[in-house]
From TrEMBL:
Keywords per UniProt: Membrane, Oxidoreductase, Transmembrane, Transmembrane helix
The species this protein was found in: Letharia lupina
Topology in the lipid bilayer: Single-pass membrane protein
GO cellular component, one term: cytoplasm
Location of the protein in the cell: Membrane
Pfam families: FAD_binding_4
Membrane-spanning residues: 462-483
Signal sequence coordinates: none
Glycoprotein found in the keyword field: no
InterPro entries membership: Diminuto-like, FAD-bd_PCMH, FAD-bd_PCMH-like_sf, FAD-bd_PCMH_sub2, Oxid_FAD_bind_N
The protein's name in its UniProt record: Delta(24)-sterol reductase
């Protein structure tokens, strides 16, 4: 804690200096699982990249004290030593605890526990004034709930108390074939009523073919033990597709716990398929084995940023109420038409059902739905930039029409007026005023895509125009991203997959 407190003092001093000048700053984490690019220089940032330690795992009260840059794989490695695991674990090992708290995150246990921020019961935060405060469910709860999903626009979260629960060695996973989105939804409802189930999600491979996966923690293996961490292991979605194509009956397997939690790491769900397609590399078992290093999400995100290809792919996570899920699916199917689609049920409030929502939750409505359905909508967009922007804007309009919302880690094309129609700006601005954070960029300013600025830059500068033209030539952008993923940056230090073939749970 002494080292942590010293680091926080330095961060607080930097923030006080920005506050004295009323100069906005952004936060440098050292890495990102966000698809947006930063628009500020390093001298306009506060560096918190050293806050990457698990400071305590309390086995009596079942919680961990975690700095914000602790990645999911580091967190899991620390808690499993004590036979514990967070109730919600984001599916990519490089996603950080602070990122999940400040940026909205959910996973296959979210049907029971809600978003990741619902398992955070206390935070330490450097306010925009440079003061260091704490906030919990009972002390300054407005700050705790307000900071969730606020992308650092209330201050800098420097420590989080994360709830834990008992871990087991395996996840006994059942794969249920389904023939439609509506059948998948009914299966979700049925599974959610079983208190023994810990995890549930689904994949639609086509409009008439999909799978619902339900898992329960168990100490003993049942049937086939299947891993997903080694280069020779299958990618999870391909394996699931093969199982349901092979049999119309449910299949049950035992998956080592960490292999399950990070089952989508290799290939980033199925976005890795598009990398093979882009480089004209055969998408087969041998190709995936040879290129396995490049198909882990840490490396893929780095390449995505450097290549500029994030502006060519629609990468959106969307939640809509169960009652409008069919309409949203129909729109995606008819308008975008790409598969697979990820489906994941999410409980609005999780276990703390009485906990108030922060101002960046959806605007409250009469009879707010308890359950939401997350759609992972990821695939190639139109090659023409204007058409690409328009496709995203129409998608965002449909989300709003159906009373849903999207994760803001991705690009946001809404106008400012459209954006704030979805959220409670009055409460948000009041909270920022109360904690003197109004001089910081607000959340819309942090997540928006400045389309007009892009077009103006290309009109006003021939250098910008030529660079844009250069990156549009296949395969220059992709090769540059691949070069950087191979030889440059902090992603070169990608952690070994420590759960590959080792005992995961210390008895």
């Amino acid at each position: 804690m002494e080292s942590h407190n010293d680091a926080v003092k330095i961060i607080a001093a930097q923030v006080r200096a920005f506050n004295a000048r009323k100069e906005p700053f952004r936060i440098y984490h050292g890495s990102t699982n966000c698809t947006r690019t930063s628009r500020r220089q390093r001298d306009q940032m506060v560096d918190i990249s050293s806050l990457n330690h698990v400071l305590q795992v309390d086995t009596q009260a079942n919680f961990a004290l975690v700095e914000p840059n602790v990645s999911m794989d580091v967190l899991i490695e620390a808690t499993l030593r004590h036979g514990l695991v967070p109730p919600v674990v984001m599916e990519f090992p490089g996603i950080t605890a602070g990122g999940g708290f400040a940026g909205t995150a959910g996973e296959s246990s979210s049907f029971r526990y809600g978003f990741f921020d619902r398992i955070v019961s206390w935070i330490e935060i450097v306010l925009a004034t440079g003061e260091v405060e704490t906030a919990s469910t009972v002390l300054r709860s407005d700050l705790l709930y307000g900071a969730a999903a606020a992308f650092g626009t209330l201050g800098i979260t420097t420590l989080l108390k994360i709830e834990l629960k008992e871990a087991k060695t395996y996840v006994e996973l059942s794969y249920f074939p389904v023939n439609s989105r509506s059948e998948a939804l009914e299966k979700f409802k049925q599974i959610a009523r079983d208190p023994a189930i810990d995890y549930v999600d689904g994949i639609l491979f086509a409009s008439n073919a999909g799978v619902v996966c339900s898992g329960r923690l168990t100490s003993e293996a049942c049937g086939n033990v299947q891993g997903f961490a080694r280069p020779s292991d299958p990618w999870f979605y391909l394996h699931a597709q093969k199982l349901v194509e092979r049999s119309s009956n449910p299949t049950v397997e035992s998956i080592p716990l960490v292999d399950y939690l990070f089952r989508y790491d290799r290939g980033a769900f199925w976005m890795g398929f598009y990398a093979f397609k882009y480089f004209l590399v055969p998408f087969n078992r041998i190709g995936r084995w040879v290129l396995d290093h490049f198909m882990h999400t840490r490396v893929m995100y780095h390449a995505l940023h450097k290549s500029g290809l994030s502006t060519k792919y629609i990468i959106q996570d969307v939640v809509v109420p169960y009652v409008t899920a069919h309409d949203f699916y129909k729109y995606v199917d008819e308008t975008l038409g790409f598969y697979p689609l990820w489906l994941c049920p999410v409980h609005q409030r999780g276990q703390s059902q009485q906990a108030p929502q922060g101002p960046l939750a959806e605007k409250p409505k009469p009879n707010d739905p308890e359950m939401l359905l997350n759609f992972g909508v990821w695939g190639p967009g139109p090659s023409n930039r204007r058409a690409f922007v328009e496709t995203n804007r129409k998608l965002e309009h449909k989300i709003q029409e159906l009373e849903g919302r999207k994760w803001l880690y991705a690009h946001t094309y809404n106008t400012e007026e459209e954006f704030w129609e979805m959220y409670d700006r009055k409460s948000y601005d009041a909270l920022r005023a109360k904690y003197q954070a109004a001089y910081l960029p607000n959340i819309y300013e942090k997540v928006k895509v400045d389309v007009e600025g892009e077009e103006k830059g290309m009109r006003d500068s021939w250098v910008v125009y030529l660079l844009a033209f250069f990156w549009s030539i296949w395969p220059l952008g992709g090769l540059y991203g691949l070069y950087n993923a191979t030889f440059g940056g902090d992603y070169l230090l990608t952690r070994d997959v420590w759960w590959n073939g080792v005992q995961q749970l210390k008895r």
